Amino acid sequence: MTYPKPHDEVARLSVLNDLSILDTRPERPFDLITEMARDVFDVPMVAISLVAEHRQWFKSTVGLCASQTPREHAFCNYTITAEEDFEVLDATEDARFADNPLVTGAPHIAYYCGVPIMAKGRRLGALCILDRKTRAALNEVERRILNGMAEQVGREIESRRVLRQALATLATSMDPTLLQ
């Protein structure tokens, strides 16, 4: 299965790796955002997806059992390359996704809307809402809300990086005899 890749793929992957967020434990700030998105948009599934070189990894999910999928199955490939939010109203009728195992089998995605998660100026993944049934397109207010949530995810990722850098600086400047 082919999928689009961003023009800045090498730099994007470098930023994603530098942020050291892949394969980290669940964190409440991210879980709160996915739970809120589920409730606001009344969908059974929400994911904070980060698109790595060969896989899509989920930092937080609601209603999905998987922790990752092969990248070739990721709807989020389209989100990180789209100029705007990426929405699929009926994946079963969309030539790009009709044969996708995530559509034909569990979790049976029929509807997808993803907005990019940005950090350090790069699209690292998507905050996406999903449904097992088709839906109408989001309206302008709903898009603003979903984009605001994705922006908060990006800020959470950035704040983790800043905190890690501050702790590393502190550790190198400490007198080692204080730790004995």
Outline of the structure:
By secondary structure, this protein is of the alpha+beta class. It has helices at 9-18, 28-41, 76-79, 101-104, 140-173; strands at residues 45-51, 55-62, 68-70, 86-88, 111-119, 122-131.
Output the keywords.
180 residues; six-stranded antiparallel β-sheet; globular
Report on the architecture of this protein.
The chain is α+β, with helices and mostly antiparallel strands. The chain has a single domain (9-172), classed as GAF domain (Beta-Lactamase, 2-Layer Sandwich). Helices cover 37% and strands 22% of the residues. It is built from five helices and six strands. The protein has helices spanning 9-18, 28-41, 76-79, 101-104, 140-173, and strands at 45-51, 55-62, 68-70, 86-88, 111-119, 122-131. It has a six-stranded antiparallel beta sheet. The longest helix has 34 residues, at 140-173. The chain starts with 8 loop residues before the first helix and ends in a 7-residue tail after the last helix.
